[in-house]
Amino acid sequence: MMAGMSNLDHSEPADDASYASDDASYASEEIVIAALASGGNVAGAKARLASFLGRHPACAEAHNDLGVLDFQAGDLKAAATSIDRALALRPDCARYHRNRALVLLNVGDTATALAALARSLMLDPKDPETLQVVGELEKARRASHKKMKVRRIN
């Protein structure tokens, strides 16, 4: 993983008019889940999320948070599935697109990750976290290009 790209974002619930009622009912539940996760009880947090999603399957924020926990646990396939569910419910959420890009970068799907980052920037061109990821990718690209040049010299 690249520096600064180890954690997906679940810190900023969406606040636009399309914020689903299931997402709004998630606010108090999210506090308990965050406390469990920050206390090291990731399994408890995931169980609580799964229970909530059983009752509120249309809650995009809960799907995203489950993806964040899966990502942090190293289960990239499960993270991708949860974040894709969040995006299916809220395709206008720049943060979800950025999180999807980070998962894709970690599985080596750079082309699709770049498309997800581009979509994130289209939705929120000034998002500092997305801009940071883009900057880190550019830095890595330059370093890789520089190494490639060095290998060609005999």
Category by helix and strand content: mainly alpha
Sketch the major β-sheet: none
Multimer state:
single chain
Q: Assess the beta-strand content as a share of residues.
A: under 5%
What is the distance, rounded to the nearest whole angstrom, between the alpha carbons of the first and last residues? 31 Å
SS element count, helices = 7
Uncertain runs are: 1-7, 13-19
Overall mean confidence score, pLDDT: 84
Query: If you compute it from the alpha carbons, what radius of gyration comes out, rounded to the nearest whole angstrom?
Result: 17 Å
Q: Any idea what the shape is?
A: globular
The total of beta strands comes to 0
Task: Write the H/E string, N to C.
Answer: HHHHHHH
Percent helix among the residues?
Answer: over 70%
Could you characterize what this model shows?
The protein has 154 residues and is mainly α. The two termini are 31 Å apart. The radius of gyration is 17 Å and the shape is globular. Helices cover 72% and strands 0% of the residues. The model is unreliable at 1-7 and 13-19 (pLDDT under 50).
What's a quick, concise take on this entry?
With 154 residues, the protein is mainly alpha-helical.
Topology:
Elements: H1 21-38, H2 42-55, H3 60-72, H4 76-89, H5 94-106, H6 110-123, H7 128-152
Helix pairs in contact: 1-2, 1-3, 2-3, 3-4, 4-5, 5-6
Features:
single chain, 154 residues, mainly alpha, 7 helices, globular, disordered N terminus
